[in-house]
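Progress against Task 2.4 (sequence-to-structure conversion) is shown through the following example record, which the project officer requested during the mid-term review.
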Amino acid sequence: MTERDPRFERMSRYEPRRRPYVQVTCPDLGKYHARVIGWIPGEVFIEYPIKILDYVTTGQLEVAWIPTATAIRIRRSDSIWLSNEDDHDWHQVEDERIKHRADPWTVYQQEAR
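Structure tokens generated for the chain above:
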């Protein structure tokens, strides 16, 4: 029997369809885009695709706890993948608050589509 991770009991959660996008930088995977499911102080729980087939088609999403210092919030439109189920109005309002733009590698991948 596996022990339950105690972080989930303390985790604050975003509502489904209203999960912000982040750009994550980690030594193993480099830079990638994810959505935040929830957070605790110092860590965020994210979901991200392993295989992006196109802008809105991904394989199964993976999940992971990562340090907040490794993630920076990005606009939905800057993400290299999107969920069809996003609340577009919520994301538009939230995205207007974000000053950071994702790194240029994102733009190049979007233009290639």
